[in-house]
Amino acid sequence: MPEEGVQLTPKANLLTTEEILTLARLFVKEGVDKIRLTGGEPLIRPDVVDIVAQLQQLEGLRTIGVTTNGINLARLLPQLQKVGLSAINISLDTLVPAKFEFIVRRKGFHKVMEGIHKAIELGYNPVKVNCVVMRGLNEDELLDFAALTEGLPLDVRFIEYMPFDGNKWNFKKMVSYKEMLDTVRQQWPELEKLPEEESSTAKAFKIPGFQGQISFITSMSEHFCGTCNRLRITADGNLKVCLFGNSEVSLRDHLRAGASEQELLRIIGAAVGRKKRQHAELFLMFRDSPPANPSISSWDALHVEGLRSRMSFSSQMATLWKGYRVPQTPPLAQQQLGSGSFQRHYTSHVDSNANSKCLSPGSWASAAPSGPQLTSEQLTHVDSEGRAAMVDVGKKPDTERVAVASAVVLLGPVAFKLVQQNQLKKGDALVVAQLAGVQAAKLTSQLIPLCHHVALSHVQVQLELDSTRHAVEIRASCRARGPTGVEMEALTSAAVAALTLYDMCKAVSRDIVLEEIKLISKTGGQRGDFHRA
């Protein structure tokens, strides 16, 4: 909670009880089998018990959950259980009462613990405890949280710090899943990995002999967007298919305008069909989004999940809503409606490990440099006599290397329109540029004389259309494990993708400008991590 508080959403803008239930009926009718009331804080809404009771009557709805700060839980839970509440998540970021008061700007730690014990007493198993881990704040409590599972049927879920809305992004604050897992394993080496449920957002582990378990939600380091089947409706009735995206569709306005069920289904289906395989528009969000305006004193969201069966992204998010089929798009093309303009979004992946996750676009965000910045005052590719020389990396240790680079191509209005509508005589410029970027990353050592050959494990090239500047924004990310970095691979990938766009469009305009070819971030190596401010 910010020290200055937050601006509250006017009551007239919030969904009414009947509007919430109308939307819930619609989603359940279309196959949603789980609804979670989240926040903000849902338990301060005076009609929350009545809402749960009426949700329970919806045929086909199997799970009704709530995510709460726990302050009012002990008082309300007996009523909520009686009317049908079946799952509980409690947000708790510290086990230190004084630190709790610092984080939430109010007392109440004992009430949260009372709520946890009340949930256990009433038979909820597991009771999920959500803990957002932040370096310098609570990462030293990992083992204390894990120890809670010894005698209590808890699922303590450690969540990677995520840079959206009110969170002020700082790479130094994030504690990765692997770092957290290593910390726990040092204390309990016998820690066991549990099988993952399909579409699960958490990686679950259990300490042998303990009643409960721990889980990790790897929202940033190993995101799960490709199998995510969650939808979110905000307190004021906006549908979000991705928590990270700026794009919202107001279902409230359509409801109040008298939209029919079929019209609502078309609107929802179109939004779902635009859901992406990674955090939606993340790098653009950090650059352009207005200050966050969460409502803490209002019921902030109705979280809807479980679209029909738990399917993969391609089948789940781009096929059926009953009575409305979302138009299929080519595998490399995800079409989206931006604010008043039509955009095409392209993404490609080359990954040597079929089970590994995509690189998180969160690494594209602007941020301050982190880690030691060990720069040299001498050129490393020049010997003592000033002649070009290749660096010997034979004695350097193999480490995980990741680099992200960007480029911008200013096309001008005519070429931009043709690219946007895919009407160039040469073909689809975005797809060709994308493939060229992937190929360039793999051939970097053949193009840059003193660059080492790197066995890339992953290459991702993304292109976004920016209608305000008539530009294409390119992001290229590369990953490898070895003794040398992959900055040149990422930069070459972005540059060649930009050059390819120029080549595809030069017959239409010679006034095309390539600009802002730059390294966004790199991790791994002796010189430390770099993140462009």
From TrEMBL:
Pfam families: MoaC, Mob_synth_C, Radical_SAM. GO terms for biological process: Mo-molybdopterin cofactor biosynthetic process. Pathway: Cofactor biosynthesis; molybdopterin biosynthesis. Its cofactor is [4Fe-4S] cluster. Keywords: 4Fe-4S, GTP-binding, Iron, Iron-sulfur, Lyase, Metal-binding, Molybdenum cofactor biosynthesis, Nucleotide-binding, S-adenosyl-L-methionine. Its EC number is 4.1.99.22, 4.6.1.17. InterPro entries: Aldolase_TIM (IPR013785), MoaA (IPR013483), MoaA_twitch (IPR010505), MoaC (IPR023045), MoaC_bact/euk (IPR047594), MoaC_sf (IPR036522), MoCo_biosynth_MoaA/MoaC (IPR050105), Mopterin_CF_biosynth-C_dom (IPR002820). It is an enzyme of class 4 (lyase). Residues 1-190 form the Radical SAM core domain. GO terms for molecular function: 4 iron, 4 sulfur cluster binding; cyclic pyranopterin monophosphate synthase activity; GTP 3',8'-cyclase activity; GTP binding; metal ion binding. SUPFAM superfamilies: Molybdenum cofactor biosynthesis protein C, MoaC, Radical SAM enzymes. PANTHER family: MOLYBDENUM COFACTOR BIOSYNTHESIS PROTEIN 1 (PTHR22960:SF0), MOLYBDOPTERIN COFACTOR SYNTHESIS PROTEIN A (PTHR22960). In the N-terminal section; belongs to the radical SAM superfamily. MoaA family. Isoform MOCS1A and isoform MOCS1B probably form a heterooligomer. HAMAP family: MoaC_B. NCBIfam families: moaA, moaC, PRK09364.1. This is Molybdenum cofactor biosynthesis protein 1. It comes from Saimiri boliviensis boliviensis. The gene is MOCS1.
